[in-house]
Amino acid sequence: MKQAREYLKGDHEGRPYISNRTGKACRGDPRGRPAFVIDLLTTLQQEKFSPRGWWHFLQRAWDMSCQTANTHPSLKRSWLHITLCIALLTGTIVLTNLFMEGPEKTLRLLPVFLFCVTWQQTDLFWHLGLNRQTQTGKLLPKVGVANSFTWLRGLGASYLLGRLLGGVSTPTPLALLVFLGGIVTDILDGQVARYTQTQSKLGQIGDGEADFCLYLAIAIILIQNGVLPLWVGLIMLLRFCIPLIAALVSYFLFAHPVRFGSTQWGKLAGLAQCLYFLVLLAPPQLSPFTEIVNLPLLTATLILLVMAPLAQIVGNIRASK
């Protein structure tokens, strides 16, 4: 533990960080990456991504998260409050599912659902050190309402993933209900963050993860229900998978996080895809309208899904110069 505490010096408090490789104090690099992140990743590389290296990586990262939580009790309490709220809502969803669909289907979706929820809350704790105001870099004392909306969207995505991996079919009306809830929370988290000036890296990461899981689940459900053509679904899934793979490879192999920020093309692509999903999930009573807008909206969505990653690549190239 004494050695672990040495790794923690300066990671979230602004004090010099003691590198495990050099023993020298450092604060980061010119690209803005925290020194402790660089040291974690380079140590993992030096251990050739072995099981032992991954264990050290995860253990030290967890020690840093615990240090942040213990140093900032109000932040830790807000995480605990959100976790209790999510746990209460999880229990409510399970009981409602048990009442509506019976014990057999509920038990089939339960393991994956609980795993996703547990991972979600653990991931939030893991990244508490990133709960810093974007403008000032100041660590915010609470997780905040905006991030709470994001994690609610993640809860809905976890429920759908539990149904998918548990082999439980999802009726279109249920998928529509969860998706509408995701849209509402997606709007609210951004609006609240801007209004309260609590935009943070934590919120950006959580928002991306929640969107990825929700859109992934909805796309697969639509394919399973025979509403979304397989080739269209694959294109939509690649929109999320390619940036994710690129970011993971860059992060772990080169210790350099790729910038995947918001672009105008990305916003338009997300809006078009959202509208297209709503058209596919719309009740039969709206079929006269949905049949008219289906093809034009699909065409626009596919074009924007191609343009968005290209714009992101161009942005990364310009930022690297």
Structure at a glance:
The chain is mostly helical and 321 residues long.
Considering the chains and any ligands shown, give keywords for the structure:
1% strand, 321 residues, globular, two-stranded antiparallel ribbon, mainly alpha, single chain, 3 domains, 2 strands, 10 helices
How would you describe what is shown here?
With 321 residues, the protein is mainly alpha-helical. It folds into 3 domains: 1-71, no CATH class; 73-227, no CATH class; 251-321, no CATH class. Helices cover 75% and strands 1% of the residues. It contains 10 helices and 2 strands; from the N terminus they run αββααααααααα. The chain has helices at 2-8, 35-46, 51-71, 73-126, 145-165, 172-196, 201-224, 230-254, 264-281, 287-320; strands spanning 17-18, 25-26. A two-stranded antiparallel sheet has the order 1-2. Strand 1 and strand 2 (25-26) form a beta hairpin. Helix 4 (73-126) runs parallel beside helix 5 (145-165) and helix 5 runs parallel beside helix 7. The model is unreliable at 1-33 (pLDDT under 50).
